[in-house]
Write a structure and sequence with these properties.
By secondary structure, the protein is α/β, with parallel strands linked by helices. It is built from 15 helices and 8 strands. The protein is about 45% helix and about 15% strand. Strands 6-5-4-7-8 form a 5-stranded mixed β-sheet. α13 runs antiparallel to α14. The longest helix is centred in the middle third of the chain and has 34 residues, at about 160-195. It comes from Trichonephila clavipes.
Amino acid sequence: MSSKAQRRGSDYRRKRKRFHANQYTRNVSDTLAVDCISASAKKLCKENYLDKEVRNSNQSNGYRMINIDILLSELSKYLICPNCNTKVVLKEKILYGLVSEFYVECYSCSTLTTFKSSSVIASSKDYEVNTQITYAMRTVGLGFCGIKNFCTAMDLPSPVSQKSYERIMRKINLASREVADDSMKNAAEEEVSASGSNEICVSGDGTWKTRGHTSRIGVCSVIGDVTGKVIDVAVLSSYCKGCEKWRRPKSGHSYEEWKLKHQPHCVKNHIGSSSKMEVDGMKEVFQRSVPQRNAKYIKYIGDGDTKTFPELQRTAPYSIEKVECVGHIQKRMGARLRKLKTMNRGKKLSDGKSISGKNRLTDKFIDTITTYYGNAIRQNNSSVSDMRQAIWVIYCHYRSTDEEPMHHFCPIGDT
């Protein structure tokens, strides 16, 4: 024991050192920028950086939620009439939706000044806050009823009427279409520039609003292989809410007159089954690739069990080469192994054991095999023989035992 410790006594306990980190360690943001590999991760990193930049540039814009009683009472304490130098009163009346009109009144000289809580959008003459809450609620999947419930729960004024909401939605829809189209045109230009040619490789797939083959709405998208950005989309719908409102006979002068007015706003653009939406949507996207995107999608990455590619070959204005999606092949391997496991559940195999259990075909083991299977395809895509050998390595390696070694396909040193 040192002399210093002896002087402090036997009960002395050394203080725990605090961790001060390493001042030479890179920032988290730097690490994220380097480690972003996928296209989605890169875009998210870029968006987070831009977000931070915007927030730091100006903290005084936007909207705040404040109790109106606090606002009125606090401001009324300090407001003074510029004419008679006496205190004034700030009051509020609801004007339109979430917009309030405030007025400042002087009891001595009857001076009156008014102002509104939101600016007006010049192009549409709608108040900005009413448009903003409509857009915000649509981004989280809520409509007019959702806005009313939100305003009720937050003790906010009643929103705009149903008719005004629908008018605002039409304007938001038009603006969103323009922004999306410009964004996709820029993405197509980036893809062409990165590929060095207007003959590019794209991946395409379809998705539906609901699962199964009964969905009334489907979306097809085409994504650039190099940039990972959406180049074009096609939305298909076999349902129109406006059409459902007409409940009278679909004949006669009144029906034709209504149909003529409704036609420009009708969203029904697909006739047929839900599964056919992907085929029709991809046909539409490929046929307008040259006039609208100035590009040819000569290589198409898609799933192998789809009817889309044969139809594209038949109708596309140029020849297309199919590039098989490894992810879909990998998924099919896992699906077939799980099906095999289900079919043999409760049965005894030739060795007297069940197909699942410890050191058998478990879900975790299926995931492992599926991952190795996908890697074997990706790492040997230039040679069929090497790919075949790499796939058989997986089976032989796991099948091998000390009594019956099967490492003849394994690379030297990796057995």
